[in-house]
Amino acid sequence: MKKGKVRRGAWALMALGLMLALPPLALLLAEDDLLQYVVAAPSGEGAAQELASLLAAREGVAETLGDSVTATAVGAIAGQASVGAGEKSASATVYAAGEGWFEIYPEALVSGRRITETELLRGDRVAMLDADLAFALFGAELPPGAEVRVLDERYEVVGTFRHRREVGEVSAHAAIVPLRAASGALDAVVLSARPVANAGARTLFQTAAREGWQSGGSLYSLGKEAMRRTMLPRMLLLAFGLSALAALLRRMNGWASRGAAAFRAGMREYYFPRMLPRLLGLIGMCALGYGTLLALLYGLLALSAQPLYVFTEWVPENISSWSSIRDVFWNLTGSAAQLVKIGTPQMRRVEFLGGALRWGCICCLTAAVLLRGRRRTPVSRGSAR
């Protein structure tokens, strides 16, 4: 009875681990590659001038990045702000958008129109609300000339968009206003870029952001950070995949040996021309089987080695030189030891998914150990009398 309970508990733990691991893994693998550089939002009397200088510096960053990115934008975020109309109000995440914002963070319109690039450039007092927030403030129909209070300023609502709250957002609702018109308590300013694959955009973006925009910020590559969170399942897949391929190879070797033995036995009774089709079939099946195993091994090793092409900082310049290995170690620990890091909603989402994936993998691994341990438990024998 005890063995059955442990086995059922292990399978339940395995199911729980899969439920925890598979959805986050799928979302992390589908994460868009987006570059973000985040600094604390300026405050005080000179905040408007500092924001204006950051917006102006974006053009220099875009020139430095050149064709390695498809779009760049500067925006600010207020994680929890009050958005009101009349006597009604609600808490919302406010995104203060600069030029090019919608090229990087597109929104699906529900009604009205999007804030134009001209309005972003001029800093017009216009706003977009998510559809649920607009319904909470104005009801089913958005009245003409509707106005809202956002960050202590009044804005005309020009459109609504579809918004789904995700991990990383404090508030259930969202609103978008031009950055040049925003005032009040902003939490962070974000320089964003959408990179071109295999164009070296990460290195260029890091240099341009820290030297040509503002130093002291936190740099994130969402695609890279998503891959970092999949390292544990990649390691487990490599271990279990190699074990499974070894078992399949043993089965294939056994089948090939039995086929060769059957062919030799047939040669004692029949002439070679009659046995030739059987020989060709055996050779073809062996080629197909071993070729499939070789292709699976190549795919498994390629998947496991993929992070080495992304995390180039992990690879020493000279793998046989202790000083080179030491430099890599201190560079990695130095970036991890940064005392203050400012996040973004997108980065917080990646971190949450990575945590759920990690716990799911731990549950699955624990269940696999329990199941394998119960299978190998020797049968107790009664003492001889």
Can you tag this structure with a few keywords?
2 domains, 19% strand, 6-stranded mixed barrel, 385 residues, alpha+beta
Question: Over all CA atoms, what is the radius of gyration?
Answer: 30 Å
Overall tally of domains:
2
Q: Quick check: average pLDDT?
A: 87
Give the termini distance in whole angstroms: 27 Å
Structural class: alpha+beta
Largest beta sheet: strand ordering: 2-3-8-5-7-6
Unreliable spans are none
Q: Largest sheet, if any?
A: 6 strands, mixed, barrel
H/E series: HEHEEHEHEHEEEEHEHHHHH
The helix count comes to 11
Number of strands: 10
Roughly what fraction of the amino acids lie in strands?
A: 15-25%
Helix content: 40-55%
Task: Please give a structural write-up.
With 385 residues, the protein is of the alpha+beta class. The chain has 2 domains: 2-18 and 230-376, no CATH class; 33-217, no CATH class. 54% of the residues lie in helices and 19% in strands. β6 and β7 form a beta hairpin. α1 (2-29) packs antiparallel against α11. The radius of gyration is 30 Å and the shape is elongated. The chain starts with a helix and ends in a 9-residue tail after the last helix.
